[in-house]
Structure formats: structure tokens, C-alpha cells
Backbone:
């Protein structure tokens, strides 16, 4: 990837191997050029808002600002439908070329922050912002789900000892009792799977709300660098936000730490925000 005067050049690769067809497969472009304009940045920012608002993995937008090339001098003249793919941290582009109905080739991913900034800024988290009504509303929803998850966990881990006891009893039971035991084991196994699926659903929703909290209250999105002073020991924590999760009454923000040289380190670090500590 090259970046000079906001003109970006990316290599192109096929998404999949061509199936056997009666006509010759089309030659795909080898390079993709685009200009990173204010308009394109605004489109990316709008897509990111949709990601967090609707808990989406990716937003795909058809755009016309791309130029596809065979090499640095020969522009690709065939009609190509150009698509921009935006996720929480990166963008990339793909192209649809006849006779295909879906994207047939793609570019490498570009980190959005590296695209927007020569030097990525470090955002500061101010915990006093957690006292505003919007933050309190999101925290209440997260805590409600956390309580539901705790209840489901108690049920899930409470079933396992019962299953073990039934299995032990089943080994010494008569054939008639043995049949009844098998039915009970089957029922408990199915119930355990249902509870586990519900736990995963609740946990996914909690993590989604946590990402919304960080985005809507602190303006923090995945890939951002931030600093935070822990309230217990006044320790300064600086890291890149890659993922978040809620454990008990604490929001854990996870990602590689930022070194004194202003670079991303190799070790994973945590910033822990306890809900209610600023109330």
C-alpha cells in the first residue's frame, strides 16, 4: 500500500477460484487506486455509526470513487461494480465483474485510523461521563443482562452434579430403573444445552451494549488508542481498543498496550472500568 497526497494504491486478488465455464474467465485488475477525500471519510464515519447502532459486523456500500488498473499505466476499462466494505477497524474494496453476480476480487484491508491520521491520537477516557443519563441507561441494561447471565450460570453449573449422580446410579440400577434414568439424563442434557445457548446469547448482547457505551459516551471505537487512569491505584493504562467484555460489575477493555515510544506493544493489556464507581 502506498499513500501520498491522499492517493492510495492497493493490490488486488481473486476471492475464489473460477468454476468450469464454457467461456474464458475474465482477467481481473491487479491494482486499485482511490483518493481519500473528506466525502469518503464522511461515508466511512456514517457506516461505522450504523455498525454500532445495529450491532453489525460489516457495512457494504457501492461507490464510484475507485479506479481499477492492470498495472500502473493501463487503466481497466471494463465496467466494474465497486464496493467498499467497512468493519469496526478496517476498510477494503471489492469488485463485481460480469458474468459474476457477486464480488469476484478484493483488495487488502486498511486500518481506518492509519488512513485518517499520520500519527494516531490517544483519546482520554473521563469516567465522569458515565454519570450522564444516556450512560446510566446503557449501564442499567448491561447490569440487568449480567444478573440474568449469573442466574443462567447457576442453573447450568447446578445441572452437572445431578447428571454425574444419575450416571453413577445408572451403573447399579435394574433395567426398569435404568430406562427411567436414561430419559432423565437425556432431558437434563437437552436442558443444559438450551441454558448454554441462552448464556451465549446474553453474553453477546452484553458485549454489544458495552461497545455502544464506549462509542456513544467516550467516542471510542475499535482500533482507537486511549489512555485511562485506574481509580484504585491511579495507574495510567494506555492501549488500543480491540475488544471488550463485562465480567461481574466490571467492563474490561482489551488490546495491545502502547509503549513509551508511541508504538503498539506485543503484550495484551486491560483497562477495567467498574460500573458505579463515579456515582
Residues:
Amino acid at each position: 500500500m502506498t499513500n501520498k497526497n491522499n492517493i492510495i494504491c492497493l493490490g488486488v486478488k481473486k476471492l475464489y477460484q473460477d468454476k468450469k465455464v464454457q467461456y474464458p474467465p475474465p482477467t481481473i485488475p491487479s491494482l486499485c487506486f482511490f483518493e481519500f477525500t473528506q466525502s469518503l471519510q464522511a461515508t466511512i464515519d456514517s457506516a461505522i455509526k450504523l455498525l454500532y447502532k445495529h450491532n453489525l459486523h460489516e457495512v457494504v456500500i457501492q461507490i464510484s470513487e475507485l479506479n481499477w488498473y492492470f498495472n500502473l499505466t493501463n487503466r481497466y476499462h471494463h465496467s466494474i461494480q465497486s464496493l467498499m466494505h467497512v468493519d469496526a477497524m478496517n476498510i477494503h474494496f471489492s469488485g463485481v465483474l460480469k458474468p459474476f453476480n457477486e464480488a469476484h476480487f478484493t483488495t487488502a484491508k486498511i486500518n481506518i485510523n492509519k488512513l485518517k491520521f499520520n500519527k494516531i491520537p490517544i483519546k482520554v477516557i473521563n469516567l465522569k461521563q458515565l454519570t450522564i443519563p444516556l450512560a446510566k441507561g446503557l449501564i442499567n441494561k448491561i447490569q440487568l443482562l449480567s444478573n440474568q447471565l449469573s442466574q443462567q450460570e447457576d442453573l447450568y453449573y447446578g445441572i452437572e452434579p445431578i447428571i454425574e449422580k444419575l450416571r453413577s446410579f445408572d451403573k447399579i440400577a435394574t433395567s426398569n430403573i435404568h430406562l427411567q434414568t436414561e430419559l432423565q439424563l437425556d432431558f437434563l442434557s437437552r436442558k443444559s444445552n438450551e441454558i448454554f445457548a441462552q448464556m451465549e446469547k446474553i453474553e453477546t448482547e452484553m458485549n454489544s451494549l458495552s461497545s455502544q457505551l464506549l462509542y456513544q459516551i467516550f467516542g471510542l471505537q475499535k482500533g482507537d488508542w486511549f489512555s485511562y487512569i485506574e481509580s484504585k491505584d491511579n495507574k495510567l493504562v494506555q492501549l488500543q481498543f480491540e475488544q471488550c467484555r463485562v465480567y461481574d460489575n466490571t467492563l474490561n477493555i482489551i488490546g495491545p498496550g502502547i509503549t513509551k515510544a508511541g508504538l503498539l506493544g506485543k503484550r495484551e493489556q486491560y483497562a477495567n472500568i467498574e460500573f458505579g464507581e463515579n456515582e
Summary: Helices lie at 38-54, 112-116, 133-172, 175-218.
